[in-house]
Amino acid sequence: MSNQDKINKLIAARNQARLGGGEKRIDAQHQKGKYTARERIDMLLDEGSFEEYDMFVTHRATEFGLDKQLYLSDGVVTGHGTIDGRLVYVFSQDFTVFGGSLSETYALKICKIMDQAMKVGAPVIGLNDSGGARIQEGVRSLAGYAEIFQRNIMASGVIPQLSGIFGPCAGGAVYSPALTDFILMTDKTSYMFVTGPKVTKTVTGEQITEEQLGGATVHATRSGVTHLKAESEEEGIMLLRKLFSYLPQNNMEEAPVVPNDDPIDRADDQLNELVPANANQPYNVLDVIHSLVDGHEFFELHRHYARNMVIGFARFNGSTVGIVANQPAHLAGVLDIDSSRKAARFVRFCDAFNIPILTLVDVPGFLPGSMQEYGGIIVQGAKLLFAYGEATVPKITIILRKAYGGAYDVMSSKHLRGDINYAWPMAEIAVMGATGAIEVLYQKEISQLPPEEQAQATSDKENAYRDQFLNPYEAARYGYIDDIIEPRNTRFRIIRALQTLANKKDVNPPKKHGNMPL
Questions:
Q1: 8 Å CB contact between 320 and 313
Q2: What do you get for the CA distance between the two ends of the chain, in Å?
Q3: Which residue spans within 216-290 are E strands per DSSP?
């Protein structure tokens, strides 16, 4: 065989590998509104940047006639490329080969690129579209999953890990995405669950569809499993690229700084009037965020879950900042189980990857009630407390309005090593609001007055309490607030604070790890 014959053989093998499970299965994938593994990679990465590994790998199984069904690449495409010129490792599961099911060699391919990503300090993006374990391979497939899980765990906090769910993701397959930093699902074409509808019906008698059990809407709104929900694969890929742009390559580097033409001293007079004079009247904290950040652009995460808390990424003078904000427009911005977990996870991610945290506070306290207590609000709220107290990145806090009780402490207070803590003039920092405080402090005294005088006495006491305590000056008097700032100048004060804290160093005590209240 001549050299040219050997080259032709290579070219033919490459073409065969690129066909995955064959034209018919590719057509079936397209008819479902889904792209193939390689088409997704082409959309995700910069044009021409993808370098594929292990194209010629095949499975090693012989049981159940598998020795007669060999497909090059064995159901997953792996390699590296760039996004906006930055290195990233990728694996993309191929549903056209055995339904994307995971085999021993398939797992080894993923493990190889994860190991390399750790060596060079580059993020990993997984594009998931798999029916789960390859049943014909038995425990070898399960072992393959566990090998991947172990690498997810070792990579956690070292390199960013993103998961795109573009099809089925069931059984053991869901735990790898769950171990990554951020998950994206596509509406109507993806689902995630530990146990599917058929087994659910057999075991519990519950009749439920795949969409109802683990669709994108369910996980975006009720479970909080997915951080982003996309209407199409094209949108999903675009969101993954956008999210990637805010993140550093690894935990030893800073996030990329992009050119900024938004003046750092841009003032917004509307902020002076944004917070209603009536403390019980809501407003949308997103209006505050969009006003403050570069280009009014905010990349929100978990938008549909625990809406009383807002989290996401933005830039200030070109640098990435993580934003955590109470949302008065939903449940008055109260802290509850879901919002505490949501914010705690995000704070810990930012801390792991050197991303400063801006906290915007307007919180009336923790949500009361038996459902919250039975659900462990004590422990769940402590997660957020732990996350802020542990974080060593620059922490800037601005109290917009209410900061009551223990929630004041939890929301990145000065006492949790908040670096720079500001308040707007309308801030109310106290153990509780005026009505509750007067009931505790003066209930006996007022009850002894004639009935016709009780209402006026209550009103007078509440007004006196507001004047003395429901303002930022009491906290500023003790140094718990570094300054009371005019709302219109908030953007400039944040950017200057970030510049001041650029070389900040906080060190936690030496330990293997803390015991977070999980």
A1: yes
A2: 63
A3: 228-230
pTM, to two decimals: 0.94
CB environment 4-33: b (16+ within 10 A), e (fewer): eeeeeeeeeeeeebebbbeeebbeebeeee
Domain 271-433+471-500: homologous superfamily in CATH: 2-enoyl-CoA Hydratase; Chain A, domain 1 (3.90.226.10)
Report, at the CATH architecture level, how domain 3-245 is classified.
Alpha-Beta Complex (3.90)
Q: Which of 121, 157, 172, 375 is catalytic?
A: 172
> Which residue from 80, 65, 167 is spatially nearest to 124, judged by alpha carbons?
80
Phi, psi of 133, rounded to the nearest 5 degrees = -70, 145
Q: Catalytic pick from 171, 214, 215, 236?
A: 171
How confident is the model at residue 73, as a pLDDT? 80
Residue 491, pLDDT > 80, answer yes
> Which one of the listed residues 196, 375, 406, 436 is annotated catalytic?
406
Catalytic, 407? Answer: yes
Q: Do 3-245 and 271-433+471-500 come out as alike in CATH topology?
A: yes
pLDDT of amino acid 371: 95
Catalytic residue among 122, 407, 423, 427: 407
Structure tokens at 441: 């402090």
Has 155 been annotated as catalytic?
A: no
For the chain, the average pLDDT equals 93
